[in-house]
Specification:
single chain, 560 residues, Rossmann fold, six-stranded mixed sheet, two-stranded antiparallel ribbon
Length: 560
């Protein structure tokens, strides 16, 4: 007996190959480990490498397993393995394991009761194995092997290498996955060692994995004879050990000289394939977005709308496609609830694009059905806050009812009347306005009442007039995603040089009640027909002219 614990062998191997291992990325160390595990399959399939047997392959696999753990900064192999295999199977928590119970547990949500396994590890810690042979014996007691098992352990190891590869890939973000897969990998290496031992005993030989390992790693590197390996990065003895060459002729050039060739040729090929599938929208439902129906619908709508506006607004199309990728990529960790996505800015972008489409294109997108259709209806809806203060003390009471009726008539007579939703704020006081903005979001804020170039007139106590500066009114709106502000009041825009919202419409001088009504009628006729705000403004001016009013009083300021 050597009296060496498993952690002693681990630390020894990590020390011998530490300098070499420190310069490699973790993926390179893992690749070398996979290579030597491949040697185990070679011998299992009956192929014999001259001077290199299954015992050599087993020891070599451990010789790279230990440096891989060291590369990942694992403090103790004993702790890593025993935390998952505390003298019992972690699934049924029995030894030998209960195959029937394990089959019922595996693949369910309760695959592994971490708390129960952790408790067993604490309880049995002092009884854990010491040397390498004792660890192999522990796994033999938990998962008995016999000569009839054939290649079961080798096949299981190959599957485990795939899982370990994933754990290496995500290690920097989720190191906990590596711990579990590394423990499983060790268990399969021990199973292969046990099956090899059984064959050796059958043939009248003895076998100690610990003794064989120490013979090959006797406290130094046997290739260079150094206590700390100084072998070249790619020792000549390892070339062609597993890989088979395909010779390159003097006039052949199988490798690209300029990596940018892949980008140029690849982009062209990708566009060709995408067009054959019908563009982004056609493949949207096949993309790996699995955050639920609502987010799938958002992704699909983004891609369809991007296709529809591509010819007229490439910038918006690119933004919408980026948003689709953002929604799909924003996944929560497995087993935890999906976090809510912030889609307010996305909805603003969708509404902008939606307004650029003809009604025919809008209907084509909504014909997709399901939640896409419902989202389309939401985009169709223009939410209007209609503020109508009319102080009793005013010297010239306004007939605001006519304007409200004209707007509602525009909505009800339009084939798309449901596209406008009006929230009335009659006899509006300043606090009514402020708290309404807190509770709801609006696309349009429409003020109809008394004003001059500096103030808007709200109602005060007892119906008195309460003047509010246009600057204060604008600052109250700024935090909210309002698209258009309509100040249908005398001289309301005369002093403005910057818009309150992306589009601000108002009057440069006094305007008669019936003229204000006609402008609103034309403006909302256009909105109810699916036109954008700029088109609606022009329609309002047209209504003014047709009714015999001066349309030069009305002005629109927009964000450049």
């Amino acid at each position: 007996m050597t009296n060496l614990r498993l952690d002693d062998l681990y630390c020894m191997t990590a020390h011998i190959y530490g300098d070499r291992n420190s310069t490699r990325p973790k993926e390179a160390t893992f690749a070398h480990f996979v290579e030597v595990c491949g040697m185990l399959t070679v011998h299992e399939r009956g192929k014999r490498k001259e001077g290199f047997g299954l015992t050599d392959a087993l020891c070599k696999a451990l010789g790279w397993y230990f440096p891989l753990l060291a590369k990942m900064r694992v403090a103790s192999v004993e702790d890593l393995v025993f935390r998952k295999y505390p003298l019992v199977c972690p699934y049924c928590r029995e030894a030998p394991h209960n195959d029937l119970v394990c089959k019922q547990v595996r693949g369910t949500e309760a695959t592994l009761n971490h708390n129960a396994v952790r408790a067993a590890a604490r309880e049995n810690w002092q009884r854990r194995p010491a040397g390498l042979d004792e660890w192999r014996n522990m796994f033999q007691r938990i998962y008995p092997r016999n000569l009839q098992d054939g290649s079961r352990s080798i096949i299981a190891l190959l599957e485990e290498l795939g899982e370990l590869g994933e754990a290496v890939r995500v290690f920097d973000i989720h190191p906990e996955y590596f711990l579990g897969e590394a423990a499983d990998t060790f268990s399969y290496l021990m199973a292969i060692a046990t099956e090899h031992m059984l064959r050796e005993v059958r043939d009248g030989n003895t076998f100690s994995l610990e003794q064989e390992y120490i013979a090959r790693y006797p406290g130094l590197c046997r290739q260079c004879g150094s206590r700390v390996c100084i072998c070249p990065a790619i020792p000549s003895a390892t070339i062609g050990r597993m890989a088979k060459e395909l010779r390159i002729g003097p006039d052949e050039q199988p490798f690209a000289q300029d990596p940018r060739d892949f980008s140029t040729k690849g982009a062209t090929a990708a566009q060709t394939v995408l067009e054959r599938f019908g563009g982004y929208a056609a493949v949207a439902q096949q993309l790996p977005f699995d955050r639920g129906d609502a987010n799938n619908a958002l992704v699909l709508l983004c891609l369809k709308l991007a296709d529809a506006v591509e010819a007229t607004n490439q910038g918006l199309a690119s933004t919408l496609r980026s948003e689709a990728v953002r929604i799909g990529a924003n996944l929560s960790p497995a087993g935890s609830p999906n976090a809510a996505l912030d889609v307010k800015s996305l909805l603003d972008e969708l509404r902008t694009g939606w307004r650029e489409l003809t009604e025919e294109k809008q209907q084509a997108i909504k014909a997709t059905g399901g939640l896409v259709e419902e989202l389309g209806e939401i985009l169709d809806t223009v939410r209007v806050l209609f503020i109508a203060p009319n102080p009793i003390a005013s010297s010239e009471p306004l007939n605001l009812g006519d304007e409200q009726r004209a707007i509602r008539q525009a909505i009800t007579t339009s084939a798309s009347g449901a596209k406008i939703l009006i929230h009335d704020l009659p006899a509006a006081r300043v606090n009514d306005f402020r708290t309404t903005l807190l509770r709801q979001e609006f696309d349009v804020i429409h003020f109809s009442g008394h004003s001059d170039k500096d103030f808007l007139c709200f109602e005060g106590e007892g119906g008195s007039a309460d003047p509010v500066s246009i600057d204060a009114f604008a600052q109250a709106i700024t935090p909210y995603p309002v698209k258009c502000v309509v100040l249908n009041a005398c001289s309301s825009i005369a002093s403005l040089t910057q818009p309150i919202s992306p589009i601000t419409i108002g009057m440069d001088a006094s305007i008669e009640d019936d003229a204000a009504v006609e402008f609103s009628r034309g403006f909302y006729d256009a909105l109810a027909s699916g036109r954008d705000f700029a088109r609606a403004f022009n329609e309002g001016k047209s209504a003014l002219r047709l009714a015999g009013h001066d349309d030069s009083l009305v002005r629109m300021i927009s964000v450049p």
